[in-house]
Write a structure and sequence with these properties.
Blueprint lengths: L15 E2 L4 E2 L24 H10 L10 H10 L16 E6 L6 H4 L24 E7 L5 H14 L4 H6 L1 E5 L8 H6 L2 H10 L5 E5 L4 H10 L16 H11 L13 H14 L6 E6 L8 E5 L8 H11 L2 E2 L6 H11 L1 E5 L8 E7 L5 E12 L3 E7 L6 H18 L4 E11 L2 E10 L6 H11 L2 E2 L5 E2 L5 E11 L8 H9 L6 E2 L4 E6 L4 H4 L1 E8 L2 H25 L16
Parallel strand pairs: 3-4, 3-6, 4-5
Antiparallel strand pairs: 1-2, 7-8, 7-10, 8-9, 11-12, 11-14, 12-13, 13-18, 14-15, 16-17, 17-18, 18-21, 19-20, 20-21
Helix pairs in contact: 9-13, 10-11
Length: 582
């Protein structure tokens, strides 16, 4: 604890202070695509959940071709629902269909550099093939580079009794050959022959489908494949929104930040902020303005109260919103933010002062409705809101506290019908000498901590103890640091094969299958275009994990420097020269 990490990439150093680490954030942008927004007007009357459903139903782009009842009936009758534990390692005979589609608001996703390659974060599921009775279908927009697949299966061979060749026979990689920005599942549904190929490969009686997040698209695909969907029906997506999270926290009886109801107009938001400011005796220094539907903190903005005028409070709040709002996304403007308020809804929360860390706890709700805890992490956040990486596990000072709170939240979600992975983000501080955790939001989907945990757990054959630690098959406890956000422009132009050739030449950048420690890289397809990738550093102690992480960063920085010295940049020259006369 209290260790500091420093990423110095691209010749310039950007410091972002965390209690556990220092990270570098290099921002970028990609082509933006957004679905048409609903036009049906909506008042502020009524229950928040009802209002959210009305707003969703008002969107004519959502088809109503699938049946929730069909999937519910299928799940109840399927072997899928009789699996004893989902958190533990399995040897069951099953076919798993992985759909890593980011079926979210594309305008929000576009804020994340290299997000088009995030489909590959779930390649950690290839390590599920350590179960010799499991077959895996993995679908992507574009083909996964052969070198990446060989890299993952090579690590699997080192850590299990399964050879890479044998695992490859049970792996069915499917690509849409479509690099457009529409969600992957939408691409799949437009290709009936591809759907039929998946149906031909699987045994429906033993198969189920899992995805990054569920929408009407994933529900439709599961119905077409006639397999259970281990993810929420889209009718339950309310509980993964900002306002839904607050309602779940209230029902669970846990602490959460003070805030406003959900609004769809700036005027209502202004009045609510002013009212809450007065209620708190004008002591609030900052508010977090949150779009109801956001991803990785990119839908948030910070509102400071320094220029609030008590005599003209609402006018001053409106002025500060228009001129002083600090957006987590650098290209956001008040004009674009207002459009999203009308489309998604917005709320304000009081910034929790004196918070020392931002841990999270991950869990799942199995098909029987039982809550199973998976992990805890310290989140590494840029600006206190945007996810950059994680450290496992969360501090023992408050680990049990957030595990207990998350279990209560899971029980509430289960009672609503939710059945999938979820995580709860917290901030923690000491009050009167005791640790207190304030819940911030629920991520009702896979998240940035999902793939590191799956990687560490499967490669070390670990189980989570009651204390929230990972005990591996070698009877050692495992710890790790992970990130998705190592970025340096000099890596652009390198193929995954080029990068992995460098990795294979450095034993310190590899995973040791005998000691069950080392480094595993991911997001490797993003290197060539964005110079971005991620990795997890796994060791037998927290200190060694941080040391391994730092050494890895230093080696990569050194390699980046050498590449930059030998790299030549030639710009396209379209200037036309006139021929000499005569």
């Amino acid at each position: 604890e209290g260790s500091k990490l420093l990423l110095r990439l691209g010749g310039s150093t950007v410091k972002v202070t965390f209690n556990t680490a220092l990270f570098v954030l290099t921002c970028g942008s990609i082509v933006r695509w957004r679905r048409s927004s609903p036009k049906t007007p909506l008042t502020s009357q009524g229950n928040s959940e009802e209002r959210f459903k009305v707003r969703s139903e008002a969107n004519p782009t959502i088809p109503r071709t699938a049946s929730r009842e069909f999937l519910d009936k299928l799940i109840k009758e399927h072997e899928f629902s009789r699996k004893l534990s989902w958190a533990a390692m399995s040897k069951d005979k099953e076919d798993v269909i992985i759909i890593p589609s980011l079926s979210l608001d594309q305008s929000e996703l576009s804020k994340i550099p290299a997000v088009t390659f995030y489909e590959e974060r779930q390649l950690c599921t290839l390590f599920f093939l350590n179960n010799p009775n499991l077959r895996l279908v993995y679908v992507t927009s574009m083909p996964v580079d052969k070198a990446i697949v060989e890299y993952y299966l090579g690590i699997l061979e080192q850590t299990s009794m399964v050879s890479a060749n044998e695992a490859h026979k049970r792996l069915f990689l499917v690509s849409c050959n479509d690099s457009s920005v529409m969600p992957l599942t939408s691409k799949i549904l437009r290709r009936p022959k591809l759907v039929q190929k998946i149906r031909n490969f699987i045994n429906p009686a033993k198969a189920h489908m899992t995805c990054f997040i569920s929408s009407n698209l994933e529900r439709d695909l599961a119905c077409q494949l006639e397999v259970p969907l281990f993810s929420n029906d889209p009718s339950l997506s309310y509980w993964g929104t900002k306002i839904g999270s607050r309602e779940a926290f209230k029902q669970a009886g846990i602490k959460f930040a003070k805030g406003t109801p959900l609004f769809y107009t700036v005027g209502e938001l202004v009045s609510a902020i002013a009212k809450l400011y007065i209620q708190e005796k004008c002591s609030v220094r900052k508010f977090v303005i949150k779009l109801n539907v956001g991803f990785s903190g990119e839908g948030n903005a910070l509102l400071r109260t320094d220029n609030f005028n008590k005599n003209q409070l609402e006018d001053s709040v409106l002025k500060c919103l228009g001129t002083e709002l600090e957006y987590t996304y650098t290209l956001e403007t008040w004009a674009t933010f207002q459009e999203k308020i009308q489309e998604h809804g917005v709320l304000a929360e009081v910034w929790v002062e004196n918070a020392v860390e931002s841990p999270s706890c991950q869990a799942l709700i199995n098909p029987r409705g039982e809550v199973e805890l998976l992990s805890t992490h310290e989140q590494l956040l840029n600006g206190g809101m945007v996810y950059q990486g994680c450290v496992f596990p969360a501090s023992e000072n408050y680990r049990k506290l957030i595990m207990d709170a998350t279990y209560k939240v899971g029980q509430v979600l289960s009672s609503k019908g939710c059945r999938e992975r979820f995580a709860v983000d917290y901030v923690v501080l000491q009050e009167e000498g005791k640790w207190v955790a304030y819940a911030i939001e629920i991520n009702l989907r896979w998240g940035g901590t999902s793939h590191p945990m799956i990687t560490a757990k499967n490669l070390t054959n670990s189980e989570l103890t009651e204390e929230g630690l990972l005990r591996a098959c070698d009877d050692e406890y495992k710890f790790y640091v992970a990130t998705d956000n190592v970025q340096n422009d000099v890596y652009t132009g390198l193929t995954p094969e080029d990068f992995l050739e460098f990795v294979h030449s450095k034993p310190e950048l590899q995973f040791d299958g005998e000691n069950l420690t080392g480094v595993v890289f991911h997001l490797l397809s993003a290197i060539s275009v964005h110079g971005k990738f991620g990795f997890i550093a796994i060791e037998n102690s927290p200190e060694k994990a941080l040391e391994l992480y730092e050494r890895t960063v230093e080696l990569l920085e050194k390699e980046a420097t050498e590449i930059s010295q030998n790299k030549q940049y030639t710009e396209l020259d379209l200037k036309i020269t006139m021929p000499e006369s005569g």
